[in-house]
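Might I ask for a little of your time on a matter of protein folding? The record follows directly beneath this note:
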Amino acid sequence: MIEVFSLRQGIARERLASGAAIGQRIGVGPTRHLRNPRSLEAFQAGEVLVASMTDPDWEPIMKRAAAIVTDRGGRFSIGSNDLTQLVLGVDRDSELVAPEFNERNPAVLSAIGAIIDGARRAGRKVGICGQAPSDYPDMVRFLVGRGITSISLNPDAVVRGLEAVAAAEADLGVQPGVPLVKGGRG
């Protein structure tokens, strides 16, 4: 269930903003309206970021924000490590259950696919970060096939990852940069 919140101020309770919460909590702090992500030095940790929309260029600022308010939305971002822990109920840092941590588990892949499909239906870009795309070419193929629009890779895996993306696009008959059809590429 998505809850809708309103931000109000003053005695008359004038509505400043309203919308759906994406996360699981409400952040508070002084607000800072930024027009572009190049204003990183002006943004202080703990402030609420107010922007028209966000994309991967905003990530350094978003990591420091207590909350993010956008009026046009932005992109969806999948944290595959956190999602895997949530779906499988395991802590990858726990000696007891870490062996069960597997980003390629069918339940995790189903959740990732559902998120990608939902983002596409909403007309939003969707990216993924986490270890799996850096380690597993078959994960890259799955993501390309589902219609992911960006993949974050570890620095030591960029060349291998780009090769995996190119191979997946060639195998699936996908032209780089061509808009996707609803429901992924295959």
